[in-house]
Amino acid sequence: MKLKIQKEDIQHALQNIQGIVDKKTTMPILSHFMLKVNDEASIMATDLDIALKGPLKAEIIQKGGLCIPARKLFEIAREVDGEIILEAQDNNWVKVTSGKSTFKLMGLPEEDFPALPEVSKSEEVTIKAETLKTMIEKTIYATGESDTRYTLNGLLMHFIPKNNNIELKIVGTDGHRLSVIAEKLEGSLSEEKKLILPKKAAIELKKLLEGSVDNITIYIDKNHLFFGADKVMLTSRLIEGTYPNYEQVVPKNNDKHVIIDKVAFLKALKRTSIMSRERTNAVRLDLESGKITLISMNPDIGEAREEIGAEYKGEPMSIGYNARYVMDILQAMGGESVQLELQEPLSPSLLKEPENKGYTCVVMPMRT
Questions:
Q1: Which fold has domain 123-248?
Q2: SS3 at position 81
Q3: Exposure of 264 by Cβ count < 10 A (0-12 exposed, 13-18 middle, 19+ buried)?
Q4: Is the pLDDT of residue 212 over 70?
Q5: CA 20 to 30 Å from 184, out of 10, 81, 242, 306?
Q6: Which residues contact 73 (CB under 8 A, 6 or more apart)?
Q7: What confidence category does residue 216 fall into, taking pLDDT thresholds of 50, 70 and 90?
Q8: By 3-state DSSP, what share of the chain in percent is helix, strand and coil, each rounded to 5?
Q9: Sheet architecture: strand order including 193-198
Q10: What CATH number was assigned to the domain covering residues 250-363?
């Protein structure tokens, strides 16, 4: 195996797999990627739950295949100048040459690389890449981090067949806040499907969607989701289990409505939360006609208080939140304003983008 590659091409390809290759694995092969060279060159990486396979632009001199340490080759490609020549040597070594620099890396035989799941094309849906990227960005912050309720450590992808199209809802929750966004897609499915995509896979998918991709095709299997775009295929094992009934969590009768300038609200939360207790990040909102006063208190340090204008005509009320949860929501939202819908001080609150009816966030208040 021998091929010549431009620095930018190999760097870009290796950058895309850095989040997938397993650096602390007890299986050395998982810290490697497989370079396969036939009429075209392609690379594959997996951690056994997620896999990425894609083309590599190169001038092919000799065909073959080898598993190469992903991190080390990425570091070499980042530091050298000009084109890179990769050449397989005896006993699975690979020689890397660029200008007057030469490196030798110990590889592994391609036969050691785990087999990737076969792409199932029985059920498929096509969606605009920008739409799917936005849906992930607006929900992923709410997913759990190593939660013992393991179904919360991923995004729910809820496909609902409707007449001649499909409604896709993506949901993230960690039990304290929830985010749901809905979009209509063209196409048809045999039945409603609720699939839980692991958070790591969603992050890697978002990276893939940031490239120059117009549409992405989602192939649905019983245990896997496959995302195909421009000859690149991302495969993810699904999280098994039942996702909470998110529709029951979204309150239907929050009658107190507040409209606030999003940027002003975010900045005020950042400032007042400086003085909150680190463990709770608690900030209290005192609502009165035409304004909100944000207050945080910490007996060991002091307190902070700030007033911002708001469209509110209801009775005065006070409500407390973990400021970080609300800031995460505001940072994911577009538009200039945010609508806050409330009921009682300890009832779930709704946050909405006034111009996006398909996007809803729920946050649980706290005692302050």
A1: DNA Polymerase III; Chain A, domain 2 (3.10.150)
A2: coil
A3: middle
A4: no
A5: 242
A6: 10, 14, 96, 105
A7: very high
A8: 25, 45, 35
A9: 193-198, 154-162, 165-173, 177-186, 356-363, 349-353, 337-342, 256-261
A10: 3.10.150.10
Q: Between β-strands 349-353 and 93-98, what pairing exists: parallel, antiparallel or unpaired?
A: unpaired
Backbone φ/ψ region at 82: left (φ over 0), alpha (ψ -120 to 50), beta:
left
Other C-beta atoms within 10 Å of 18: how many? 15
Eight-state DSSP code of residue 126: E
Give the integer Cα–Cα distance in Å for 77 and 80: 6
What is the reported pTM? 0.92
Q: What is the dihedral of CA 306, 310, 316, 322, to 10 degrees?
A: -60
Six-digit token string for 254: 């929050």
Choose the CATH number for 2-112 among 3.50.50.60, 3.60.15.10, 3.40.50.800, 3.10.150.10. Answer: 3.10.150.10
**DSSP classification of residue 118:** P
